[in-house]
Amino acid sequence: MNQYNYIDLFAGAGGLSLGFERIGFRGTLAVEQDKWAAETYSANHPSIPVHMRDIQTIDNSEIANLVKYPVDVIVGGPPCQGFSHANTTKRDPKDPRNSLFQDFVRFAKVVRPSICLVENVPGLLRTKMSSGRPAISAIEQAFRDIGYLAHWKILNAADFGVPQRRERLFVVAIRDDLSDVEFEWPTATHSTTEQDDLFAAANGQRQITLWEAIADLHQLCAGDPVPKSPYRSRPTNAYQSEMREKEVLVLENHEPMRHTQRIVERFAAIGHGQSEADVPAHLRPRKRGSSGEISGIVYDQNSRRQNPDEPCNAIVASSHTNFIHPYLHRNFTVREMMRIQSFPDWFVVKGKRAVLSKKLSAKKGYIDDVFLDQRAQIGNAVPPKLGAAVGKAVWNTLERMQNKVRHAA
Length: 409
Description:
Residues 275-311 are annotated as: Disordered. Belongs to the class I-like SAM-binding methyltransferase superfamily. C5-methyltransferase family. There is one protein chain. This protein is α/β, with parallel strands linked by helices. The chain folds into 2 domains: 5-190 and 384-408, Vaccinia Virus protein VP39 (Rossmann fold, 3-Layer(aba) Sandwich); 210-365, DNA Methylase, subunit A, domain 2 (DNA Methylase, Chain A, domain 2). Helices cover 31% and strands 12% of the residues. It has 14 helices and 11 strands. The protein has helices spanning 15-23, 35-44, 60-66, 101-111, 135-145, 197-203, 210-214, 238-243, 261-268, 319-322, 334-341, 358-364, 374-380, 384-408, and strands at residues 5-9, 26-31, 50-51, 73-76, 115-120, 148-156, 164-165, 167-175, 304-305, 312-313, 323-324. The strands form 3 sheets. The protein has a 7-stranded mixed sheet with strand order 3-2-1-4-5-8-6, sandwiched between helices. Helix 1 (15-23) crosses helix 14 and helix 11 runs parallel beside helix 13. It is globular, with a radius of gyration of 22 Å.
């Protein structure tokens, strides 16, 4: 069996790495500047060295020294806010070549892997430079400039066994001398209940619902005693069994948030598919710094109760305020978010559970709280099952490349 190596840039907690490892790839390096995310990555990928550093400070000569093994694939998700970085007096403020994406390309130019895989938000396809040129076109050009042919596609995690409607943009770039080997995108393995029954008959799988994903976990409210066992029941479906692939004596990251009585009352007034915009006026959030005055601003996306019988809406970094449990009057625990993202139960997240924004933490002098908290790490991550689906397509492409080389010889 062939062995293929990858390095992970902007690695975060390591969801994409975990997906690639499921397929058989060997990670040889990860680069991540956030302290808590790097700690999470190291705890769950102990064999992969993590370089905790701002990628912009790593020069080309250092890249060559860091990469100690042949690299077949570079993967990574440059932060989407990087696509608006700029010195506006000299640069196009929306030019991705002026963003952290350029550092991904710089790594690829030095390392020369067979394939590059970039993950980002679908909204990137709507981003244009001030000249009117689509940002995705500039990304394709940046890869062409270093000798790679790029293709892109939006994939929905729910179509690949993740209990969540989460669309992500993937850009695959293949080195010019290998680009006659076509990259075949993964095909959906799970269908919605509204889709043609022929699909389900062929694949035998429906999309995983939120309740199917978390029902075996202890359904705790703040103040409930810590159960002696890690689960409330045996696995009742294949997804739960998969998440419980390794025995855990203590289920970490499952402590519920503490809410005030007023917030609990607000949540109790929210039905499935509703949000804080649907509650009576007296239960709506108060103005900050006021003496109890009700805010006139209502955010429809905040405190949205999820439907248990459908895949969850997309888990994002701010999901501790976006979503509430389908039955209990609280936000999701970190572990529930991890189940929804398809992280197995042995996977643990480091750092604090929740902190203020970086800007507010810095303003208040909370120097130790300027890193990504547990919820942000999980919300930012690529769902491992989606990562595995893309990783399998990358692996198959590398195999076809190897076969071509053998036949040529």
